[in-house]
Predict the structure.
Amino acid sequence: MSGLRERLGRLRTESKEASKEQASPESAVQAEEDGLADGFRQIGVELQSNEQGQFLLRRVVYPLPYYHGRHELSDLISNAPYLHAVAVKQNNEQSEPIEVHKLLFLDTETTGLGVGTGNVPFMIGFGYYTEQAFVVEQTLIRHPGEEKAMLTYLLGHMKDKSHLVTYNGRTFDWPVLVNRFILNGWRRSGPEPGHLDFLHPSRALWRNTLPSCKLSMVEEARLGIHRGHDVPGSLAPALYFQYLSDGNPTHLHGVYTHNEQDVLTLASLAVHFGLLLSGTTSVDEQSELPEGEELFRTACWLEKHGATTPAEHLFALLGKMDELGDSTGWSLALAARYKKAGQYEQALPLWRRAAEKAEDSLLPKLDAHVELAMYYEHRNKQLLTALTFAEKALELGHRRARLISDAAKRKEEKEALLHRVARLRDKVSRERV
């Protein structure tokens, strides 16, 4: 930590000297008054002071209604209470009711990637709702001596908030901030804020259908947000150190924009999940229907969070997906759900469709054939049909065995199928006698 402070202090001194050399007479006069370079004023950054010192603050107001991507941010005002189910799951206790004005949307830009004490949040962006607008505020420190003032300002905004809305904030942003609070002399007292970390629902819905669940990927693919030229968050530390080195604030313009957009996207994601959980909108209302895997993941997520009506709507839609030419791995999971509920009439077409797909596959799954064999043996009592499916599963098993390297698994699978076929052949022969 001392090494980082020395580096920041040295760069601060160098940046001041460079700024004096490059400043125009007019900007030099202003710089003497408040120490703020013109490059900051160009994007609305101001000098902020409190009892702990100074830091920089940028404030951007988005009057409502305001669309960010597909979603109108004021829609969260009525749908925020539906996020309560997410908060309960994430905080392992009965969370406070969700009120939109008690949410703080938080994103940090830091000097590194870890959560250790040497990682400093040089910029903290946060957003919140007022009666008429969504407001984004961004704090920045020019040297370590401004950190306590910045953190004091953040705490002032947190005191009346119940939840932090983040993307991976539970495991990154918040632990980093906790370390900085401790290093600046604060000790924990009272309960921590609740969390609404949208990385987790994003993974639950999209981990198998998007190349990654990075925020930039999710916002473009599912929220309709296209940033165009954007400074990646991974470059933010290097740009900050470049600013400290030469004192030129324009290096940070892209970082400000990136952080601001991240905060807006958190609000748009909150609207998205709130609308899904409320049942007032559904993924099938999009212009292009998502593939079955995403529909299934979404339905399971809704069911897990108590939104049974919209979940059942999606499950019913999935049952008709063969009309749309979709027949993928989710169908077996959906069939298992129907089987558990005793709804075999819904499970049967899914098993049959999966069985047909398996027979055309190079590495076939045997589950559908085995399930059909069990159904016709134990419930429908059509032993010959059950034997047909069991023998087909054994045949597919031979094809599959050539591509499975796990010898123990191959042996176990083969023995189970041989036992089932032998038992069914015996039953069929005794039935014919």
Notes: Residues 320-432 form a domain with the Serine Threonine Protein Phosphatase 5, Tetratricopeptide repeat fold (CATH 1.25.40.10). DSSP finds 18 helices and nine strands in the chain.
